[in-house]
Design goal:
The complex is a heterodimer of chains A (653) and B (141). Chain A is an alpha+beta fold and 653 residues long. Chain A contains 14 helices and 17 strands. In chain A, strands 2-1-5-4-3 form a five-stranded antiparallel β-sheet, sandwiched between helices. A five-stranded parallel β-sheet of chain B has the order 2-1-3-4-5, with helices on both faces. The chains are: A alpha+beta (653), B alpha/beta (141).
């Protein structure tokens, strides 16, 4: 995706990702570790403290037992109250009563943890109490089956063989110490039930020692609170909350109290059915951890910011130079050779930039050299071309001059030949003389024709002639008429599709020359027997308004070998006859044809005709094509030149 | 040409004897059977002198050493010795510049030197023009 398109963003993202990862893992690890450590610490401490409290509780219980033992060993209690003296509703004879009462009173006062102490007989009937309370109230409403609680207690006491035991009280959260009273003989005769005050156990709990979110409580085996530092009152049933604690390993677990999570430890007080529970609000306990977490997060954020800044700087250091190099390269590609890139960081990137700059400068150098070389080349070519053109012109001038000068002796020769012929009367001429004269005439004619053609050739180059709209069908018609005798002589059939021949802009005389030459060639190089020629034209482009015309002149002769098809249009080049005949010609005719046609913006080529002969194809611009001046080859650009080397006395096109 | 009559005096000016012969024969054949009296000149000076003796038609070669045919033409048309004799310019090259210049002074016809058959035809043509025409008028080939 686009975000990864730049090195800079990669660096930034990479660093940021790394930092985030580090921060997160750091935080997680830190928190976890700290939490674990803290928890362990808290648990240990809590456990130790709970154990201490439990020990205090154990001590308390023991002292309470001791207190009870003291009471029951008191001489006042050793002497049993005779049965007869025991009355209903806890009344006892005054004499023994007061002594015992006194003991009880002292106990209550001393212990400060008893609300009252009631003495019962072994049937569970109360007979003495301090302070005086309604014994029946103390003894509880007899249960439905009619067995008073005290009776049960007495039974239990008897069975337990212990001097005293502690049992749940009648009120929730209360407890009673039940002790056996024996007489001097050791026979049990009464039971003392010490009803503890509800806050009796309070001193055991370390009020001042607890933190704000800490709770300490003592509860019995049924989960009833017997004492609590805060938040609970004796009698509260915490069975459900703390049930798990009894199962938890080490007696520590998380419990929910008052909607908040607490870490609680439970330690049982030996020798009792009680246990001490110390709990601390987890949130408060781990506040330190949160603190650590916060610190860690803060540090991570700081690290992140630092990291991002660093990576931005890095990215800048890398990104900017890279961008500059890219821009530089693009500019060089666009043609601004020599573009220099500035990179001021002192590292491999600046080295790269240095190398780039050298390369760029070198490129510029080479390019300039190339340009100069090209200019030199173009100059050379232009020079050559102008030399060639000059030579061409010179040659043409020479041809013109030479041809012109040659006319005079030809004329003279012709005249003299005629005089000679006249001098020898016909009847005096033998075959040799006749033949000689004939051949003289033919040769002179040939020379004359050559001279004319050459002169015409040079004239084409020098003047435009008199271009008008000429009807090629008219021209061809005239040529055919002119060549009629020769066509018949050689038995050549000529098919000319006159209707197809267009009207073009050209000099009529010259076009006449063109078709004269072409048809003459066809006659000369055609078959000796059954020779056939055809002429037709085709539009090139839109048939309604063609841009050009193609006019074809073809024969069914032996044709022109492929290797010669270019050459024959050059001056003084003649085609070889595949049939090996000795065909007369000047080598000027086709050069003339091409020169004329090219002068009017067209061209002429030869290829093989369908029936094997030569097919000459002339293209000419149509009448309404834009007028083009036939340009002499002028050197402009090397690639546009098509100049042939001038061989000595050779061809020029 | 019809009929006989007095011999037609015709000037043939050309530096080459052969060429003069050609013209002579062509003219004779063209005018035959009418008798012709040929006056020959080998250069411009002689041509000028001959012209002053009075001729019916003059064949002047454009190129001659000394006085060229064109110069002769100029002299007799513009010069002190004014002559309206019909002139036929004989040219080898038929250079338009020569012909244009000749036309300024009024020429009856132009003939191109060539091989005899063609030449003869031209001469016949030229003679007809020269004899028919108002000699002072200019004509372009």
């Amino acid at each position: 995706m686009a975000l990864f398109r730049s090195i800079r963003s990669k660096i930034i993202l990479g660093v940021v990702a790394l930092l985030v990862l580090m921060a997160v893992s750091l935080t997680v690890v830190a928190t976890e570790r700290t939490e674990a450590a803290l928890e362990e610490y808290i648990v240990q401490t809590q456990h130790a403290r709970a154990t201490k409290i439990a020990q205090d509780l154990e001590g308390f219980v023991q002292s309470t037992h001791a207190l009870a033992a003291k009471a029951v060993e008191h001489p006042a209690f050793i002497e049993p109250i005779p049965e007869a003296q025991r009355g209903q509703n806890g009344t006892v004879p005054a004499s023994s009563e007061s002594a015992k009462r006194e003991v009880l009173r002292q106990l209550v006062r001393t212990g400060d943890q008893f609300e009252n102490i009631v003495a019962y007989d072994l049937e569970g009937l109360p007979y003495l109490s301090y302070p005086t309370v309604n014994a029946w109230t103390v003894a509880e409403t007899p249960p439905e089956d009619g067995v008073p609680r005290a009776f049960i207690l007495a039974q239990l006491l008897n069975q337990s063989k212990q001097p005293s035991f502690i049992t749940r009280g009648t009120d929730p959260g209360s407890w009673d110490l039940v002790a056996m009273v024996r007489d001097a003989e050791g026979r049990p005769w009464a039971m003392l039930v010490f009803h503890a005050r509800l806050d009796a156990l309070a001193p055991v709990l370390p009020q001042g020692d607890l933190g704000a979110a800490e709770k300490a409580l003592v509860m019995d085996d049924q989960g009833t609170v017997l004492a609590s530092s805060s938040g609970y009152t004796p009698g509260d049933d915490l069975r459900s909350q703390f049930s798990s604690l009894s199962r938890a390993p080490g007696g520590t677990d998380l419990v929910t109290l008052g909607g908040k999570e607490h870490l609680a430890s439970r330690v049982a007080a030996d020798g009792t059915a009680w246990s001490v529970v110390l709990s601390i609000e987890r949130a408060v306990a781990f506040a330190a951890v949160d603190e650590i977490l916060r610190s860690t997060v803060l540090i991570s954020l700081v690290a992140l910011v630092v990291g991002v800044t660093l990576s931005l700087v890095l990215g800048h250091d890398v990104g900017v130079p890279v961008k500059r190099l890219i821009a530089g390269a693009e500019r060089v590609t666009a043609g601004e050779y020599g573009t220099q890139v500035r990179v001021s960081t002192r590292d491999e990137l600046s080295d790269l930039a240095g190398a780039f700059n050298s390369m760029s400068a070198r490129l510029l150098e080479e390019n300039q050299r190339l340009i100069r070389y090209q200019e030199t080349l173009e100059d050379t070519v232009a020079e050559r071309t102008s030399e060639l053109t000059e030579k061409n012109d010179e040659l043409e001038a020479f041809v013109y001059a030479a041809s012109h000068d040659l006319r005079t002796p030809i004329i003279s020769l012709d005249w003299l030949m005629r005089e000679l012929a006249d001098a020898i009367p016909k009847d005096h001429r033998d075959a040799n003389i006749e033949r000689a004269l004939q051949r003289m005439e033919t040769n002179i004619e040939g020379m004359d024709q050559l001279i004319s053609d050459l002169l015409e050739l040079s004239r084409i180059g020098r003047t435009e002639g008199d271009p008008t709209a000429v009807s090629l069908s008219e021209i061809v018609g005239a040529v055919i008429e002119e060549l009629g005798p020769r066509l018949r002589e050689r038995g050549v059939t000529l098919d000319a599709d006159m209707a197809s021949l267009p009207t073009v802009r050209a000099d009529a005389r010259r076009m006449h020359q063109v078709f004269l030459n072409l048809i003459e060639n066809g006659i000369k190089y055609g078959r000796d027997e059954g020779a056939h020629m055809w002429i037709r034209a085709q539009p090139i482009g839109d048939p309604q308004r063609p841009v050009k015309w193609r006019i074809e002149v073809a024969d069914n002769g032996p044709g022109i070998p492929e290797a010669e098809r270019d050459r024959i249009f050059m001056l003084f080049q003649r085609a070889s006859d595949p049939l090996g005949r000795d065909i007369q010609g000047t080598g000027v005719g086709l050069a003339l044809v091409r020169k004329i046609i090219r002068a009017y913006g067209g061209d002429v080529r030869v290829r093989q005709a369908p029936d094997g002969g030569a097919l000459f194809s002339i293209t000419l611009p149509s009448l309404h094509a834009p007028r083009q001046r036939a340009a002499r080859p002028v050197a402009s650009r090397a690639s546009e030149l098509d100049v042939r080397q001038t061989a000595p006395g050779g061809s020029y096109a | 040409m019809s009929g006989t009559g007095p011999a037609l005096r015709i000037l043939i000016a050309d530096d080459q004897a052969l060429h003069r012969e050609m013209v002579r024969r062509a003219v004779s054949e063209a005018l035959s059977p009418r008798p012709v009296e040929i006056v020959e000149a080998a250069d411009g000076k002689e041509a000028l002198a001959a012209l002053q003796t009075g001729v019916e038609v003059a064949f002047l070669d454009v190129r001659m050493p000394g006085l060229t045919g064109l110069q002769v033409l100029a002299k007799i048309r513009d010069g002190p010795v004014h002559s309206t004799t019909p002139i036929v310019m004989v040219s080898s090259s038929m250079d338009p510049r020569d012909l244009d210049e000749a036309a300024r002074y009024g020429v009856s016809a132009y003939v191109q030197k060539g091989r005899y058959p063609d030449f003869r035809v031209q001469v016949v043509d030229a003679m007809m023009k020269a004899l028919k025409q108002d000699p002072a008028s200019a004509v372009k080939p």
